[in-house]
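Think of the structure tokens as a kind of shorthand, similar to the way a musician reads notation: each symbol stands for something richer, in this case the local conformation of the backbone. In the example below we present two proteins back to back. Begin with the first one, reading the sequence and then the tokens, and try to describe in your own words what changes along the chain.
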Amino acid sequence: MDQNKKIYIGIGAAALLGLGVYFYTKSKKNQSAPTTDQPVIIPTSPTPTTPTPMVLDRNKVLKKGVSGAEVKELQRLLGGLTVDGSFGTNTENRLKAVKNVIQITLNTYTTTASTNPNVYPNGTKVFAAKTSGAVVTFAKVRDDGAFLDTGTVFRTIPRGDTVGVIISRVPSGNYYVVRFPYGDIPVFVAAVDVTKS
């Protein structure tokens, strides 16, 4: 083959190779992301806002028919209720069972004595339950036969010692009137301070 033919074949092959590279590169550019003159919008997450805390009216009288955030708080404190903020029959019954009242404020809830769920019957012999002992106060018998707590401390009964036999109690069951075994004296004692065994 003559030298000129070889040169033309070489030039032709180089031209074909060049065209192949050109079209290959052009097809790759067409596959890349399209360009646009539109502005790019980057989504942002909304700025979190802190909710304004609810201020409870702790002196609001809560009773049947009342609703709101204060009732929700009362229902949460009472437990065993659907916390819906509506003071209905179930809330009233629960309040009566726990605090022995049918209306209350959040401020007085903690200072109102809870009803004793395990009231011992009359005739039960009770013993001092706490390490610090059971403080008993004198009970005065009124003319109508009811007992009145004088508030005067009779003595502190050491843990495990006999306090006496229950002869009466307050309606909530939080205090018992006990006949002290020595001297047959009626005394008041807190239910949480005694046990029957």
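Once you have a description of the first chain, move to the second and do the same.
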Amino acid sequence: MEDIGLRRLIALGMACVLAAFSQGVVAQAADGFDFNAHHVDAVYEGKLQLPDFKARDKDFASFKTRITEAMKAGVTFAGEYAVAQFGCGTGCTNVVVANNRTGQLYSFPRGGEFNQGLELKFDRHSNLMVVRWYTDSLWETCVLESFVFNDGRWIAGDALASKGDQACSGDVIAGVNTVRGR
């Protein structure tokens, strides 16, 4: 009997932990497009460290000029990063995030031919990046997504879709608010 009671107590404890966890996920999702919810306190102002295009960052060497120019313009994202966005054809763009302190480069999970018309919204005091891109070649249906950059990894947040309305043109955050009915 004691064994059954202990099992029930453990199961109840696990249920409470799971419930608390799921409520935390819901709270995070509600703030998925809020730059203030992903605030970064310090902004790097030290010496610029360029990437190692001959070794560690050689996969990005073809974009050396664009990445270097973005880095020289200063920190624009998440306290110590510069964002380089450059074209790869009609409606096609690639994005590289460069650490101005270490020189380390990171690919962004969206871009290329499958994310047409990619637009980014970011802030130097936040590690949140909000993006809008189109799912079709006619640019009628758009997707609005949030990503948090944490320790060199992109963590997907909220995603919304809309078709042919105000959400798919103009400011990216205004589009998010339109889809959410704000």
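Compare your description with these statements about the second chain. Residues 1-30 have pLDDT under 50 and may be disordered.
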